[in-house]
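To: structure subgroup
Subject: Chain for Friday's discussion

All,

I'm putting the inputs and outputs inline so they're searchable in the archive.
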Amino acid sequence: MMKFFERAARADRIGIAVTRLGLIVVLLWIGGLKAFKYEADGIVPFVANSPFMSFFLRKPAPEYKIHMNGEGQLIPANRQWHQENGTYAFSYGLGAVIVLFGLLLCAHPWKPELATIGSFLVLGMSFITLSFLVTTPETWVPALGDAQHGFPYLSGRGRLVLKDAIMMGAAIVTMADSAQAYLRKRSMRTGPETTQRTAQNMAMEAR
């Protein structure tokens, strides 16, 4: 049993690597899907109700409810409405930004400073995504007859949003690891005196 705990205690580096890889896969995959109309249709409730994003769309929030396509469903009139609403243009831009975050994380082995910035941006994105729990009515089970509706009963969209709490923690872990890698790299270039000062500063901050 002790061997298990000893090995588990040494798994932190593997854990950080897997965490970073997981973030990269999610960011590149989900960001890439934003180029497809079904995915763009699905994010409209989040965007239309968000005080941070609603201005990107042309039409007021309640109107989207009668123009939603289900996943795998195609109603040309709804697609036309979303085209006019700016849904797809916004989704393309958002997807490009998310993919960029993923690519910044990929730079960790060569440019850890870029990966640090990328993780920080993912952290900020997670805060915005979690705010959808407050701003988006569709994140909660609607009152359609069942006794379980509203808070704390998460809908499918709500369960999707809540998972960003894990992404937030992962972004903090990778940000710290990339920042440490950058400081080590920088200290190797600037000499032992700078290394000592950096270590002293880190020790003071830890206190």
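Points worth raising on Friday:
The chain has one domain: 14-206.
The chain has a mean pLDDT of 90.

D.
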